[in-house]
User: Which sequence fits this backbone?
């Protein structure tokens, strides 16, 4: 399968989250067409630009398939009924980390005015997920299960709306699924040979290539 339906397009604003901390993890569905720019959807905010947002992490997709799994892990939670509950910009069912590769390219939105986007890296989980859901241990569950989600960079700007398609138009590094990269660099399961490959994997974000190279030392 190479085409999926965008069930929702979600954006958020940075709001007080934990004392002085801000977060825009709670993304809400948008109505109508939304611009897809080099830095992501317009408008959309990220509170900590060191780890979210920017050209290399412009769009986040956390598979809707994982929401039911989380209900089995932590019970029901209002955020599990929200398509942007994990900070995801794009709500899609049927596409998961095992089936997406670093460098895969997708046409997002209409063919005549949609965006061209490319898978850049897995999402690395942080404490804000646990704070949002009020459950300790979620980060550890993400690391052991590989249910990370991933980021896209935007190669060609365009626009998108709920109901549009997400069509894979090119396979990137076919040996490097998002799941495998996550296991290697976030779960810490990489061999020396894998670290060497990842350090040279051009479509992977520079930050993770540098991380792979540093681990080889």
Assistant:
């Amino acid at each position: 399968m190479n085409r999926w339906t965008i069930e929702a397009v979600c954006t958020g604003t940075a709001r007080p989250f934990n004392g002085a901390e801000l977060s825009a993890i709670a993304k809400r569905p948008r109505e109508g067409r939304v611009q897809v720019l080099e830095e992501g959807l317009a408008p959309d905010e990220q509170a900590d630009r060191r780890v979210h947002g920017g050209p290399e992490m412009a769009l986040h997709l956390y598979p809707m398939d994982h929401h039911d799994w989380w209900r089995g892990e932590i019970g029901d939670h209002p955020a599990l009924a929200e398509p942007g509950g994990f900070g995801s910009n794009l709500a899609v069912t049927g596409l998961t980390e095992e089936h997406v590769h670093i460098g895969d390219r997708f046409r997002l939105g209409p063919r005549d005015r949609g965006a061209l986007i490319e898978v850049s890296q897995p999402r690395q989980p942080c404490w804000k997920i646990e704070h949002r859901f009020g459950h300790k241990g979620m980060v550890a569950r993400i690391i052991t299960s590989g249910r990370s989600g991933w980021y896209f960079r935007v190669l060609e700007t365009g626009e998108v709306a709920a109901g549009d398609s997400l069509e894979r138009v090119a396979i990137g590094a076919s040996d490097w699924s998002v799941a495998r990269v996550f296991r290697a660099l976030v779960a810490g399961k990489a061999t020396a040979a894998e670290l060497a490959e990842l350090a040279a994997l051009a479509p992977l974000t520079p930050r993770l290539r540098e991380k792979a190279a540093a681990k080889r030392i």
The first helix runs from residue 65 to 74. The chain has one domain: 3-216. The domain at 3-216 is CATH 2.40.33.20 (M1 Pyruvate Kinase; Domain 3).
